[in-house]
Design brief:
The complex is a heterodimer. Chain A is of the alpha+beta class. Chain A contains 2 helices and 6 strands, in the order E-H-E-E-E-E-H-E. Helices cover 20% and strands 37% of the residues of chain A. A 3-stranded mixed sheet of chain B has the order 1-3-2. The chains are: A alpha+beta, B mainly alpha.
């Protein structure tokens, strides 16, 4: 089991979600996050006061999959979230020890 | 020191701004439909209009001071106007509230709302009589003969223009003027936002309204007021409301100081849609503020209504284009700020200039206030929400421009009365200096006794939690 964490551009969320649905992923968790990488921030001007906004809004997706699906999911995310411009985001793959479905108590791959 | 330099720079800018304005206005003069009225009544509606409306064609000219006759149309209009001015207070609360950080939104809204309470009571008890009671001498202050509105009954009539019989119940006038007192102190709160102690603000509001607003109101509008007697023009409160609050905002800042982390920390507005809603409410209410100041449902009120659209519209555009050219993007906050600057600028001139002159005035005041705020950003003093930059500078500019552009019911420079500009400057300097000095004293005493500011820790936590034990937004 792996936890796939993808940081993507907010406007790509729907596209990525639909693509993941198509390959049979049944659940994802998303959150609105802020951060910066090579894209850096931008400046905003309010009545002459200039502020550098370091952190740019992004979407973080968390998907738990069994090992055999990892490559497919990563490829799908990469293909749909890509614009080719700086700031497209990153994908992290983390080994996962255990998962439990709260309602039934199932564990492991059955719980996903 | 920096403040002084800033003030000097502003004066220069204003003077420089006036030259082209005057020149432009001069060209317009022939075309502009100047009303035939020549009665140079200070601060008031031309008697001709007032008379024309209902009274059947009166014999040649009415006697100098006809007896007061109740006028229903005037009464209805001034009552509605008073409610419109009152509506500006929540408008201002939202305008300011959107510009602060989310941790201070409630405290900023409270600064506007609590003065509805404080000044609402003060005005009935003391404020009205200090402003509009019989003159106590020299045109400096009203007597206490109308303490607690003593002597006023539903039958008491109030004649705004002595030469016209039209009168409204005095209660209506009391309320209309009371709304002005409320909004004026609320304007100052823009400079104090995000760091003033709530208790200090409440005391400041009460003392300031009593010692600064009421006297200046008496000078300019009260019976026997000395600036009124001198012929200073202030149609709807450019000097009384905007100049006095703007200058006072600057004076409090001397003791209040900058917000913690200013100017390095990010202090961007937390909710600009709220601010723009506030601008809309202010503009809407301002039709009552300006057109209601004719204290009559007549042609002068109608003219003020027109200029209250034309000038802010032009000012919003001039600020927006100045910003577009200067910093690359036309911001929503910029347009809104320009509109407010235009409203401030046209206030003293509303019923006294032609619509064409109002557009010129609006265009100029938008640019002047934009410049003032750019200069402020360079000087790094912390007028959080630009109470001085917009109301102080816009108020001064509007008062001078009134002396230049007045052609309807009063004569300014372009109507061949250069002395009017001098009179306006005297009024500005007198009201400005008085407001500044007295406010410095009030602020100094408050700072040395209960303290003006919250503790640094409380300021960082936010005033909503530390002053009110509430949060504006709960998850």
């Amino acid at each position: 089991m792996k936890l796939i964490e993808a940081i993507i551009k907010p406007f790509k969320l729907d596209e990525v979600k639909d693509a993941l649905n198509e390959i049979g992923i049944e659940g994802i968790t998303v959150s609105e996050v802020k951060g910066y990488g090579r894209q850096k921030g931008h400046t905003e001007l309010y009545r002459g006061a200039e502020y550098v906004v370091d952190f740019i809004p992004k979407i973080k997706m968390e998907i738990v999959v069994s090992d055999d699906l990892v490559t497919k999911v990563v490829e799908t995310i990469q293909n749909t979230a890509k614009t080719g411009r700086i700031g497209d985001g990153k994908i992290f793959i983390i080994s996962l020890e255990e998962a439990v479905r709260i309602r039934t108590g199932e564990t492991g791959s059955d719980a996903i | 020191m920096k403040l002084k330099l800033y003030l000097a720079a502003l004066m220069l800018v204003i003077m420089a701004g006036l030259i082209p304005v005057a020149a432009l206005a001069e060209e317009k003069k022939e075309v502009a439909p100047v009303a035939a009225a020549t009665t140079a009544l200070p601060n008031a509606a031309p008697a001709v209009d007032a008379g024309k409306l209902d009274a059947a064609p009166a014999p040649p000219v009415a006697p100098a001071n006809p007896a007061a006759v109740f006028n229903g149309a005037d009464t209805a209009w001034v009552m509605i106007s008073a409610a419109l001015v009152f509506f500006m207070v929540p408008g201002l609360a939202l305008f300011y509230g959107g510009m602060v950080r989310s941790k201070n939104v409630l405290s900023t809204l409270m600064h506007s709302f609590v003065v509805m309470g404080i000044v609402g009571v003060q005005w009935v008890v003391l404020g009205y009589t200090l402003s509009f009671g019989d003159d106590a001498g020299g045109g400096m202050l009203g007597k206490l003969n109308k303490f607690m509105l003593n002597g006023i009954t539903p039958d008491t009539l109030f004649q705004f223009v002595a030469s016209s019989a039209n009168a409204i119940p005095e209660y209506v006038f009391v309320m209309f003027q009371g709304m002005f007192a409320i909004i004026t102190i609320a304007l100052i709160s823009g400079a104090l936002a995000e760091r003033i102690k709530f208790s200090a603000y409440c005391i400041f509001a009460l003392v300031w309204t009593t010692l600064v607003y009421d006297p200046i109101c008496h000078w300019v509008w009260g019976p026997g007021g000395w600036l009124l007697g001198m012929g200073a023009l202030d149609f709807a409160g450019g000097t009384v409301v905007h100049l006095s609050s703007g200058i006072s905002a600057l004076a409090v800042l001397i003791f209040l100081g900058k917000r913690h982390g200013f100017p390095t920390e990010r202090m961007a507005p937390h909710n600009l849609p709220m601010t723009l809603l506030g601008v809309g409410m202010l503009w809407f209410g301002w039709f009552g503020f300006n057109a209601g100041s004719a204290v009559s449902a007549n042609g002068t009120a109608a003219l003020a209504f027109v200029t209250t659209l034309a000038a802010p519209a032009a000012a919003g555009l001039s600020w927006m284009f100045a910003e577009w050219i200067h910093s690359g993007k036309p911001s929503a906050l910029g347009f809104g700020s320009g509109v407010v600057a235009g409203l401030v600028g046209i206030t003293p001139a509303a019923g006294l200039v032609t619509p064409g002159a109002a557009i010129i005035l609006g265009f100029a005041v938008g640019l002047v206030c934009y410049l003032a705020i750019m200069v402020k950003a360079k000087l790094k003093y912390d007028d959080s929400l630009d109470a001085f930059g917009i109301h102080g500078v816009g108020g001064i500019f509007g008062a001078i421009a009134t002396g230049v552009l007045a052609t309807v019911g009063a004569k300014g420079l372009i109507a061949g009365e250069p002395k009017q500009v001098i009179t306006q400057i005297i009024a500005i300097v007198a009201a400005g200096a008085y407001a500044f000095i007295v406010t410095v004293i009030i602020a100094f005493v408050l700072d040395k006794t209960i303290g003006l500011r919250v503790e640094k820790e409380d300021e960082i936590m936010g005033l909503d939690q530390t002053q009110h034990s509430e949060s504006g937004y709960n998850m």
